[in-house]
Amino acid sequence: MANEQYIYQNRAVVFLDILGFHAKLVEFQNEAIKNKEEEDSEFYISKAVNEFINTFKSVVSILDEKDFTYYLFSDNICITIDFEANRDLLIDILNTINDLFFKFAQKGYFLRGGLDVGKFIDEKEIAVGVPLACAVTLEKDVAIYPRIVLSPNYTKLLDNYAENNLISENYIIQKNYLIKQHCEVSYLNTFFYLVNNENIIELLETMHSSILQNLALNQTKEKIAIKYEWLARELNQFIDDYLNEMMFLEKDFVPDNEEIEKIKSLKITEYAE
Questions:
Q1: What mean pLDDT do residues 5-15 have?
Q2: How far is CA 4 from the centre of its chain?
Q3: In whole angstroms, how far apart are CA 64 and each of 36, 121, 254?
Q4: For range 167-180, the mean pLDDT
Q5: Closest to 95 measured CA to CA, from 181, 1, 5, 170
Q6: Residue 79: Cβ-neighbour burial (10 angstroms; 0-12, 13-18, 19+)
Q7: What pLDDT, on a 0 to 100 scale, did the predictor assign at position 271?
Q8: Contact, 79 vs 63, CB < 8 A?
Q9: Its pTM surpasses 0.85
Q10: Which end of the chain is more exposed for a tag (fewer CB within 10 A), N or C?
C-alpha cells in the first residue's frame, strides 16, 4: 500500500462556492438557538438549515444522475470530468453547472466558481492537481460576482475541439451562447439555462425576486451589493438577448405576445442602471 502509485489523468475540474455562506451559517445557528428557547425544545433546529441541506442533497442527486465525480466540503463542491472518451462533456458540464446554479438560486443562494482543465489525480476521496488549485483561485480572486469563470486552458481546449469538429454540432452551437467574455475574463452564461425551458417565466420571476431581496438586504454593504447589482445587469442583458435572438432557438416553447411582455417586465431597473 505504501508503494502504490497514482496516475495523473486529463480532467476538467470545477470548484463552486456559495456566495455569502458564512453569514448564512450565523443565521442558521441563531435561528436554532431562538427556536430552542421559544419552543422549550430538547434540540437545536433551524428550518433554514434544513432547507439548505435538502437543496444541497437535490443538487448532489443531479451529479449522481450525470455520473460525475464530486467532492463535498462545507459549502463547496468540487466536480471532476473525464472528457477523454466523450469531449461533449466539456459542454455538458456547463449546462449542469447552470442547472445547479438555478437550483440554488430558487432557494436564495448564489454560486460562484472556477473551471480549469489539466493533469489531475482523481481517486476515491483523493483529488490532487493544479486544475483544482487554479479553479479555487479563479473563484476567490477573479469571479468576484455570482459567476463561474472559465480558465484560458479550458477555453483554448474547447475552441480547438470546436474548430476541428471534435464535439457534436449541437454542442458547438451551444458553446457560442454559453460562454461570455468581459475584458480578459471568460465566464459561463448562466441564464442560457432558460432557453428551451418551459418554466422560463417562473424561473425569471424567482430570479428577479431573489436578486431584489438580496439588493434590499445589502443596501449598506457595498462589497455585497455590487455583486447583486452585477447579477441584475446580467439578468437584464439576458432578457434583451432572449427577446432579440435567443427565443428563436426555442424548439418547444415559443412565447406569445402576452408572455413576451411579461418577460420584458422582469428586468430590474431600480439598481441596475
A1: 86
A2: 36
A3: 35, 20, 32
A4: 90
A5: 170
A6: buried
A7: 60
A8: yes
A9: yes
A10: N
